[in-house]
Specification:
The chain is built from 6 helices and no strands. The protein is an all-alpha fold.
Length: 134
């Protein structure tokens, strides 16, 4: 499956895609101005894949870590403490989505969809573009 088909089948709404398109155009204007044309590596679909990579960075490892903590707490201390750890881990995951959505200027639902897109990218072995960390 190619990247465009993966993006189209990820259930983005028109409003979310338009919001991402406006961010793409504003960032393109900042870098190139209005005259320069972009290459294949700087296209809109690659931009969405890059934002998906940025939004889901560290999320999967945090999810796996909290899953092991919840299971360990459940089996060692019982149902009540396992439930408390589950709620704490759920709040930390929501906090990660909130921070990422605030930093990128997106809604939390869009950030969740981008994280699902990153998971599907990993499933179909589509490599994301490389982000340069500052």
């Amino acid at each position: 499956m190619d990247a465009r088909k993966l993006i189209l089948t990820n259930s983005f709404t028109l409003r979310e895609l338009l919001r991402l398109k406006m961010q793409y155009l504003s960032k393109k204007r900042i870098v190139y101005g209005r005259i320069q044309k972009v290459t294949e590596d700087e296209s809109f679909d690659r931009f969405i894949l890059l934002i998906a990579e940025i939004c889901s960075r560290g999320f999967f490892w945090m999810y796996i870590l909290f899953s092991f903590i919840v299971l360990y707490t459940y089996y060692s201390n019982g149902i009540a403490s396992g439930l408390v750890m589950f709620i704490i881990s759920l709040f930390s995951v929501w906090y990660k989505f909130f921070i990422c959505s605030r930093s990128e200027g997106l809604s939390i639902i869009t950030t969740m969809k981008l994280s699902i897109l990153r998971l599907r990218m990993r499933w179909y072995k589509i490599s994301p573009p490389q982000a340069i960390d500052d």
